Amino acid sequence: MKKYFLPIGKRQEEVLLPEEHVIYDIHGNDVHVCPDIVAATREAIRNPICSKPLREIVRAGETVAIVISDITRLCGTSEFLPVIVDELNSVGVKDEDITVVVATGTHRGHTPEEDVVVCGEEMVKRLKIVQHDSRKKEDMVSLGKTSFGNDVAISKYVANADRVILTGAVTLHPFAGFGGGRKAVMPGVAAYESIMLNHCMTMSKIEGGGCNKACDASLLEGNPIHQDMVEAAALLEPDFLVNTVFTPDGEISEIVAGHWYKAWEKGCKDLLAMGGVHIEQLADVVIASAGGYPKDLNLYQATKCHMNAQFAVKKGGIMIFTLDCPDIKEPAIFTDCFSRTDMEQFEKDIRANFTIPAFVAFKARSIVNDVTAYLVTRPENFDFVRKTGHIPCHTLAEAWERAEEQLAKQGKKDYTITIMGHASATLPILDK
């Protein structure tokens, strides 16, 4: 027997497991942390990937739109934005010719205080900052149609600029494969109708078929959502890209810059090299933590644990999660979805009115419905946890005891266990 520890909130849960049954204890791979983000950004934009340097692309007198992520995304914008602006200034582009467009997608716009948090006080004072409003039709410019029949319309502040610079962060994404890159255009600055048509492809083409299995974390080939996003961005033909790549612990590892697709593609490969862990077999039991505080503050964020851990477990297997979730019912737009018990009707409603929180709730519930899921959390969360399809437990030891009883009833003596202590940031990749 061996003692294993898994993060939960700001502490750890421990459990004694038969070591001979543990096939993987996944922690991710070695990472590099960027020591100087300003210097790294400057180096990246002056020696870009598959592109001329930024200073050779823009000219004095041209208008420049810099698309940035909103406050819901961890990007490091306040650190790299001044570097981009300085570079533009150095070739004669004036501050008054630069517009920062906040890529809200379908989110609300920033408050003035949030602009300062994201951009930094100096940038807010110097530059025009526009909040994208996807529902403001008069501000949209049509670019054309994708092969998926999506009539792409985007913000006039982006479409009408002489030069467009996309920024953001490369991340694992639960249905687009990866975040960053082309997502700054679609959904970032796209019209609401365009976004909905794109996002609805997260669902199977067959009504009642649930989630589209081609749309998942790290999947790009054959992923219609990703491809539609790429085609939408290609209609715009952005001039440059600057994206950050974060470590599993939330620190900036590198800055990629250059061609809007090729530079982003390198970021995806580097991210997967950090967080992707190759496995040769699926396990009967997966024990997973989001990684502790702040990744398990609420269930909405913590479901990233489910999205990745699902790739390590056998169909019909057992999953045990250690999630503190002191704010388990936040945001309400997500947790209210768990009042639904009819998955067929839930799916129909998502198809009719797609929202990210509803889709995340649907996907999380679909994962839980395919396994036996135990959730170690606070006692005050138990009533709500039951509504989500999980079986609540006080301790990891209790959850494992219940799992052992289940394995015994199934007659499984040679069962296997995989442990994922940082499941929100590590992705099991099954070698076929």
List the helices and strands and how they pair.
Layout: E1 2-8, E2 11-17, E3 22-26, H1 37-46, H2 54-57, E4 64-69, H3 77-90, E5 98-103, H4 112-119, H5 121-126, E6 128-131, E7 140-145, E8 151-155, H6 156-159, E9 163-170, E10 172-173, E11 177-178, H7 192-199, H8 224-236, E12 240-246, E13 252-258, H9 262-275, E14 276-279, E15 283-289, H10 299-309, E16 313-322, H11 332-335, H12 343-352, H13 356-369, E17 372-376, H14 382-387, E18 391-393, H15 396-409, E19 417-420, E20 427-430
Parallel strand pairs: 3-19, 4-5, 4-9, 5-6, 9-12, 14-20, 15-16, 15-19, 16-17, 17-18
Antiparallel strand pairs: 1-2, 7-8, 10-11, 12-13
Describe the structure.
With 432 residues, the chain is α/β, with parallel strands linked by helices. It folds into 2 domains: 183 residues, LarA, C-terminal domain (2-enoyl-CoA Hydratase, Chain A, domain 1), CATH 3.90.226; 210 residues, LarA, N-terminal domain (Rossmann fold). The protein has 15 helices and 20 strands. The protein has a 6-stranded parallel beta sheet with strand order 3-19-15-16-17-18. A 6-stranded mixed beta sheet has the order 6-5-4-9-12-13, sandwiched between helices. A two-stranded antiparallel sheet has the order 1-2. A hairpin with a 3-residue loop joins strand 10 and strand 11. Helix 1 crosses helix 3 and helix 12 runs antiparallel to helix 13. The longest helix has 14 residues. The mean pLDDT is 95.
